[in-house]
Amino acid sequence: MRLIRIAVANVNTTVGAVRSNVDRAVEIARRAADDGATLVALPEQLIAGYSPEDLVQWRAFVDAQWAELERFARETRDLASVFVLGLTVERGAHLYNSAALVHGGAVVGVVPKEKLPTYNVFYEARVFARGTPGLVDQVRGVPFGDLVFDFDFGGLALEVCEDLWSPDGPMRRRSYAGAEVVVNISASPYRLGVMATRREMIATRAGDNQCTVVYSNLVGANDGLVFDGGGFVAQNGRIVFERPRYQEGFGAVNVDLDRTRRLRQENTTWRADQETFAATSPEIHRVAVKSKTGDRERLAYPIPANRSFFLPGPAPSTTPREDFCEDLLDALALGVGDYFEKVGAFQTIGVALSGGRDSLLCLYVARRWIHRRFGHLGEEGEREKARQILRAFFMPSRYSSKETQAAAVQAAKDLDAPLAIVPIDDAFEAELRAVEQMLQPGETLGKMARQNVQARIRAERMWTWTNSASGLFLQTSNMSEKAVGYTTIGGDMEGALSVIANVPKTVVGYLLDYIIEKTKMPGFVLTLQKPASAELAEDQEDERDLMPFPVLDACFALYAGEKMSPGEVREVLVTMFPEHDEAAIAVWASRFARLFTQSIYKWVQTPLCLHVGNLDLDRERALQLPVVQRTEWG
């Protein structure tokens, strides 16, 4: 047996906090070493925080990262473990997103990322250069490039995040060159359904390359990006360890590298491919590391949890519904909580409750973060923290119903949020009179203006509250309404952080149904008893104003996600929703395309949004569309 202990470490970093990030990393590294880890994988861009974006153009920021890398090496020099961590490295005129190898108090080598994503939320090619096959150089006297490291336990290769997502990444050639263990350090943001994709992909890469893959992901949120942490160890196609997500810290597993060597010898296809590679490809530079790693004699062979090498493991203890809801709610809560704490400007979190679904979900998300952050204080200590941090406001107008007020009052009580009820009718009348003085002959206050005035009064009051209470004002609009402009500029589009701007309305309802099932909180029950309504006019209902939300969300997915024309969208909807009249579906499909295009100017003005899906409405980081356009092509 050739046993090693592999630790997967997750660190919650803040962009630019190079000293604090390394402090956190050193503390976790020491704990992993005390646990007997031979190898410790820490996340991508650990020192800088992710994503540093254009901040890397400040040379002092890049220089500081190398200084902190050297400090990490000094402060772990008494440890026998091998450490892998990420930073930005300068080489000539270029900057590289890199993985550094540290052992025995020294930086042993640096490997640059090769696959630079420029899709979805990523813009790495804007500031970083790519590593290339066969590259060999030095940076600050340290080997740099396409490297494989030879330790006393075997061959080790490093790579960064996106390198793993490509089947043509560097893992293949480095495995053929002798790497038995490949460490991928990552800053992969959360998005719906990503876990199943990661798990399958990592197992596949480990099987294709007949190696042991170690994957460590960043945890925490920066700006609108939420990193769910976690990680895997996969040996030759089989997942042997999975690290829990949304937790800073580490987990470890023992692996027998003789198994990897044996399977390589047995797999004739892999051997033939390796022979072809060796004959036709550039030689990869090998770095011999002479310093010894820790004592591995006391490591135990990894025994299956059920003590059987043939029987399946225990059945899942959760349902797909529970996994979906808990995962998304945890991601949103982490995004709100880290934004609240890391910005450093806030003492309270405020939500303008409407008695409706969206604002209730946002308040619940904030309360969920308090539970995760302060649950260790006990039930009463946690509730006291909620009362200290949360603020809820109900600002009724003449159109607000008694039912929604009752729902808001009960929901605030359920979630331990102090509630203030502040009517806006007097301000509404005053504003209408003021605007009438601005109108020219023939101009009148229309229905839409009367509705939007109410939303803007509420937003203005929330901003004034933030100035007085150091408050984080949460914006509560959902993605479906945002997509078609069913929002008010200066009104419900206002806030410092948009919590559910990338959560469709059907998902909002699904989450609230789930929360009711789990908690039975009466405020949630009251909220869902009434049809969704902005309550800005008499007898208003959102779906009556727009279209059924399942149809609206399908339009969004097909038009904005699948890039279908309005005609193609209509064809799919006819099959998808046979309960609706085809003529109505045709109207809805055409109306969606028109409203979506005309509303881009609105949603590009929304606050910073939490990214939780593959299709997000965010011009800076996701769906980049011109504001001025026509749909004559559709």
Which architecture name of the largest domain does CATH use? 4-Layer Sandwich
Main beta sheet strand tally, sense and closure: 8 strands, mixed
Envelope shape: elongated
Number of helices: 21
Distance between the termini: 64 Å
**Strand content bin:** 15-25%
List keywords for this structure.
21 helices, alpha/beta, elongated, 21 strands, 634 residues
Kindly describe this structure.
By secondary structure, the chain is of the alpha/beta class. The chain folds into 2 domains: about 5-290, Carbon-nitrogen hydrolase (Nitrilase/N-carbamoyl-D-aminoacid amidohydrolase, 4-Layer Sandwich), CATH 3.60.110.10; about 320-540, Rossmann fold, CATH 3.40.50. About 40% of the residues lie in helices and about 20% in strands. It has 21 helices and 21 strands. The strands form 4 sheets. Strands 8, 9, 10, 11, 12, 13, 14 and 16 form an 8-stranded mixed sheet that branches. A 6-stranded mixed sheet has the order 5-4-3-2-1-15. The chain has a 5-stranded parallel sheet with strand order 19-18-17-20-21, with helices on both faces. The relative contact order is 0.09. The mean pLDDT is about 95.
